[in-house]
């Protein structure tokens, strides 16, 4: 490729399947069945790539555009961890291109009418600690491939309607037949309205009068649901063996070690053992 005809093209894929293409060229580019638009104001600093397990990194900078990346979507978290591909493209012959980066969006910050997003390469997960944790409590996440519990089983989820929202507290109606605290450590999933698709972890679950209950989230949703929006609650697990056996009837798949001796036993004097 000739240096004077090189442009950069981006493909960004959100977790909900939306795919957008951008370019820093002054005209649209087309290749791979996609159109890469020049009107987003998206640009990037130089991509830093290292050998070994060092983290590839860069930064994308752009203007918020109603037709592309909106501040509402950023606040709602819909761009978090979106997949990113970056090419150097010969704009005079788009088939002449090379993929120079593949990864995902990291931390996103907003200021005025612009945003700034970290780009994290594919090697980043290799720096995380791997291996199984030996602990009395379960190491699986409720409903994952190790736990194998079906969260859609009768009694372990509930549909409700938002009545009132006050920060991290969400009051719901039309939810019954569940004890207080049943959904603690579970999830609140917004099903309709502007915040549809957002999820929050439930900290407290209070049963009110009639068919009303109030849940408190660990953190506010990026975009708060409005009264009348539909939500789904899923049961929570504290990862104890007793909870797995009695609440979920799933002890066969328990991934903890409840009979491990505690730490005080390990450091006690080695007498009469």
From TrEMBL:
<dbReference type="InterPro" id="IPR018964">
    <property type="entry name" value="Phage_phiJL001_Gp84_C"/>
</dbReference>
<dbReference type="InterPro" id="IPR011928">
    <property type="entry name" value="Phage_phiJL001_Gp84"/>
</dbReference>
<dbReference type="Pfam" id="PF09931">
    <property type="entry name" value="Phage_phiJL001_Gp84_N"/>
</dbReference>
<dbReference type="Pfam" id="PF09356">
    <property type="entry name" value="Phage_BR0599"/>
</dbReference>
<feature type="domain" description="Bacteriophage phiJL001 Gp84 C-terminal">
    <location>
        <begin position="181"/>
        <end position="264"/>
    </location>
</feature>
<protein>
    <submittedName>
        <fullName>DUF2163 domain-containing protein</fullName>
    </submittedName>
</protein>
């Amino acid at each position: 490729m000739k240096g004077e005809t090189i442009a950069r093209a981006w493909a960004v894929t959100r977790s909900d399947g939306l795919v957008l293409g951008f370019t820093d060229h002054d005209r649209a580019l087309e290749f791979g069945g996609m159109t890469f638009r020049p009107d987003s104001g998206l640009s990037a600093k130089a991509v830093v790539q290292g050998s070994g397990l060092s983290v590839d990194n860069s930064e994308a900078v752009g203007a918020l555009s109603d037709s592309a990346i909106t501040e509402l979507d950023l606040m709602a978290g819909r761009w978090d961890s979106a997949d990113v591909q970056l090419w150097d493209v010969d704009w005079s012959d788009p088939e002449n291109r090379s993929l120079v980066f593949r990864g995902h969006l990291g931390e996103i910050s907003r200021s005025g009418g612009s945003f700034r997003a970290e780009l994290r390469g594919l090697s980043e997960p290799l720096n995380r600690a791997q291996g199984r944790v030996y602990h009395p409590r379960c190491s699986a996440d409720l409903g994952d491939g190790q736990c194998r519990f079906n969260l859609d089983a009768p009694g372990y989820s509930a549909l409700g309607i938002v009545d009132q929202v006050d920060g991290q507290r969400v009051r719901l109606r039309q939810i019954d037949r569940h004890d207080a605290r049943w959904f603690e450590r579970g999830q609140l999933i917004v099903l309709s309205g502007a915040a549809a698709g957002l999820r929050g972890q439930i900290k407290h679950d209070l049963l009110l009068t009639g068919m009303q209950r109030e849940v408190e989230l660990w953190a506010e949703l990026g975009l708060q649901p409005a009264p009348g929006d539909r939500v789904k609650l899923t049961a929570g697990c504290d990862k104890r063996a007793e909870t797995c056996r009695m609440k979920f009837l799933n002890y066969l798949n328990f991934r903890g070690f409840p009979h491990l001796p505690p730490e005080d036993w390990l450091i006690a004097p080695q007498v009469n053992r």
